[in-house]
Amino acid sequence: MARIVVPGEAVSEKPAKMAYTYSDGKKTYATIISMLTDENKLIPLQGPYEPLKDDIIVGYVNDVRFAGYSIALGAPNSAFLASRNTRSTFELGNIVMARIESVDEVGTIDISEAKVLENGRIERISPVKVPRLIGKKNSMISMIADASQCKIVVGRNGFIFITNDGDGALANEAIDIVEAQAHTPGLTDRMADFLSKKCGREIKPRPQENMMEMPRSPPQRREGGYGSRPPRREHGRRKY
Amino acid sequence: MAEKPKLIKDDGKRLDGRELDELRPVAIKARVLNNADGSALVIWGKNKIVAGVYGPRECIPRHDQSPYRAVVRCRYNMAPFCSLEEHGRSGPSRRSQELSKVISEAFQNVIIAENFPKTAIDVYIDVLQSDGGTRCAALTAAAVAIADAGIPCKDLICAVAAGKIEGKIVLDLSKDEDNYGQSDNPIAFASRNDDILLYQMDGLLTREEAAEAVEMARVAAKKVHELQKKALQESFEKSGRIIFPIDEKPQKVQ
Questions:
Q1: d(CA A95, nearest CA chain B) in Å
Q2: What CATH number does the domain located at B26-237 have?
Q3: Which pTM does this prediction carry?
Q4: What CATH number should be reported for the domain whose range is A3-44?
Q5: Residue B42 DSSP label
């Protein structure tokens, strides 16, 4: 039986290396409110966005500077899109999706492969609920997109872009349900029923590849503080 | 000043009918606010306390920020209408500044702030109604709110006061017992290993009495910790984001 654990609660009687835990040398304790599954894995129920390399994010331009653009992610630090990493120009308030190129030890986020998302809006959910919203092989998000006839882009940071065409209210409602019930079993089937009833036609989960990035594994904290951080990106000669 | 009431009645019970080592009724609810990242409500006897947590978020002013860790900032505030005596206009006073400082320092011990350099974690605690022991109730509320926000912590803090009235060591002093008693000791524990994270002493205790008070508070803190845990678990077991009503009925603590 999966159970909810709170910070400081023992999750293992011996020292173990798990995400979202720490050990005092005797036992292992949770650091965050999370669900302890039968496979002895912690799934966080709440928490801030911790940026990782190669995450796909959605954000909006909140500053235009000489060397590039500052992109708000809803995380404590804004991301920076250097002009040399993009061919397009952006305006203040543009919604963009991009890939995180690097995150350094003080939380500076560099992004690239940015693309403007037009004719839509941003919705926010808790970043830890993003894997559930995407579902196994995109099964959940493709279902919501199919039912609402909106194009939806889910950023790992918890920002969701929804286009203005289609039934945006239904998409919002569905996303709210996923966020509220992310920790409950059988959500995909319930969502299929809900969407089918709302649309008056059958909506089924259809797993599909390549719609978006797959859910990633939780962030692994490095051992031993700052001395063991990987070296910063080298500013060497560019290879052609 | 009113005349000193008899704090321990002839039948050995206290003014409000409690035993010497009995807590007031306590109710804890997590996630009571919609817009904060994490929140909690604690009703502890006649105390009513709401805590809201934001963060980690951008640290402003920037000279406060650290490249090594998130700064943890608490703001304890008493509402102007919270007690019989006037607390004047709302805002920082000498007393609330001290409490904000000691509460921040208690949480700096348990929050894993190294994960979030150059950010701030803001904990806002508001006392809506007070009846003695608000700093313990405030710490308890803030701990639940921080856990509810999903901020990585090594531990869940819970705090209980113990003190001395009429020569006897008692648990969880109310306002009258605090005002007319001999000593009041708010003590905060890390629930995992019973580390003491805050200990203040108002009035004097001998070494033996202090040890007895700590032991009494430690036992009670375990009970409060169970309530904290239950509140956090309850906020997730129901479907949907629930905004709990503020008139929660406190339960007697067993």
A1: 21
A2: 3.30.230.70
A3: 0.87
A4: 2.40.50.100
A5: E
